[in-house]
Write a structure and sequence with these properties.
The chain is an alpha+beta fold and 154 residues long. It is built from three helices and eight strands; from the N terminus they run ββαβββββαβα.
């Protein structure tokens, strides 16, 4: 476990599973786009999905709360992978990422009480900071979707 800056993370240490995750944690901690972050270890934050007809749970690596000035929470899910994480849950990261992007995020945002969400998968640690920056900027540029139910999602 690596020590975490208490101004950037609600936990004292970041459990890193690889050198890649250490690079990403350092970037999240130092980025002015990120208000706080946490390694999703022991938090019980899972995304439910179906794999080959069976219920399963996907546990992404990091959650980053972005710095925004409009009062709306924006959370970026960060997955650090080489494409397959069968030791955590069945199926490829591609299948899980598709579920997060096309089903989970729209459902959570439609609920209207948890802000806006984004997802980024890091396959190459040298590209990770750029990919996170781009995903964060895209998420920060988004506005509250109109749910058609009069809910401002704030």
């Amino acid at each position: 476990a690596e020590p975490a800056d208490p101004d950037c993370s609600p936990v004292t240490h970041v459990v890193v599973d690889s050198g890649w995750e250490k690079v990403i944690a350092k970037f999240l901690e130092e980025s002015n786009l990120v208000r706080s972050y946490v390694k999703n270890d022991g938090l019980h934050f899972y995304v439910p999905y179906t794999y080959q007809g069976m219920a399963a749970r996907y546990q992404p690596d990091f959650l980053a709360r972005l710095s925004s000035n409009d009062g709306l929470n924006r959370t970026l899910i960060v997955e650090v992978s080489g494409g397959v994480k069968r030791h955590h849950s069945p199926g490829t990261v591609k299948e899980k990422a598709e579920t997060v992007r096309t089903l989970w995020i729209p459902a959570v945002e439609r609920h209207g009480t948890h802000g806006l969400w984004g997802f980024v998968e890091i396959k190459d640690p040298s590209q990770g900071p750029r990919q996170i920056r781009e995903a964060a900027e895209e998420l920060l540029a988004r506005r509250v979707p109109n749910t058609g139910e009069g809910n401002a999602a704030a």
